[in-house]
Amino acid sequence: MIRLSKYALPIAVFLSPERHPSFRLSPCRGPWTGRIRNKSSRPTGVRMRADLKPASTAEAYWTWRGHRICYWVAEPEATPERPPIVLLHGFGASAGHWRKNIAELAAHRRVYALDWLGFGASAKPALPYSLELWEAQLVDFCAEVVAAPAVLIGNSIGALEALIVSAHHPERVTATVLINCAGGLTHRPEELPLVTRPVMAAMQMVLRMPGLAERFFDFARSKRNIRNTLRQVYGNAEAVTEELVELLYTPSTDPGAAAVFVSVLTAEAGPRPEALLPLVRTPLLVLWGDKDPWTPIGRGRTFTRYAPTARFVALEGLGHCPHDEDPQQVNAMIREWLKAVEGQAG
């Protein structure tokens, strides 16, 4: 089996039609505009996600470079005593992927969960998406909305962005938590097994072909593929629920979602974590599910070579998204670690 992207939650595609008879490309009918056929009568992502927010969490919007950005915010019951937290989702996910974490982490601080431009309920303009674009979004979000140095907590691509901002903009960060950090936005050919390199090169060609790319996206974002992908990458199978499938599927029906999908998966990989880690000067916690097939724990174990003061914790039996698979354990680890490092700082 070849995965379209080992960092993309909603994608697990066998490239052989013989393995998936449902994948048949119909003739192209004019140029591709980046819009998808929305065959679903389900409510929009904004309304669907409203049912998933904890009671203490609000949904809000912020305009960034002319685009509407969605985020969730949870307020503590008392006056915030600690630096705020910003939660950063991975590719294909949204703020709702932190629905099991945001309220629990807000005991003594304000907590935000941001939708990246192009994902969740945020706008999906036709742009060249990149790690640099989201880095700029996060820096501006911290400056304009959070308005204080913050703890950055990210999963997968969100963890890589947290690492980038921690390395490049230390004045915006008080501490950083990486959860199964991605090695790049996309595959680097030299990091792929030799046997898969021609297949990935062919797929890149398909993604750049109008008409074919749209039909490929319609197949890749099907609920069946989302469900199968989650079962492959979640170590805790009980966490793979229909609620989670809907959470990931619904934003993919928005106009512009297909163009975002193609833009991201044909983008440059960006900086390697190993080049960023030595630049981080704030406290760093690295959490890693040991059953992750996309970002194997072996790479995560090397992070302390590049950041000797970082704390690394292997999470037994968990996969690519430990915060969603075992939120009770992950929330407790983050709270205890922050209590320790903030106590030292104070």
TrEMBL record:
Source domain of life: Bacteria
Keyword field: Hydrolase
Pfam families on file: Abhydrolase_6 (PF12697)
InterPro entries named among the record's database cross-references: AB_hydrolase_1, AB_hydrolase_fold, Epox_hydrolase-like
Any one GO molecular-function label of the UniProt entry: hydrolase activity
Residues annotated as domain AB hydrolase-1: 85-332
Protein known as: Alpha/beta fold hydrolase
Lineage, highest ranks first: Bacteria, Bacillati, Cyanobacteriota, Cyanophyceae, Gloeobacterales
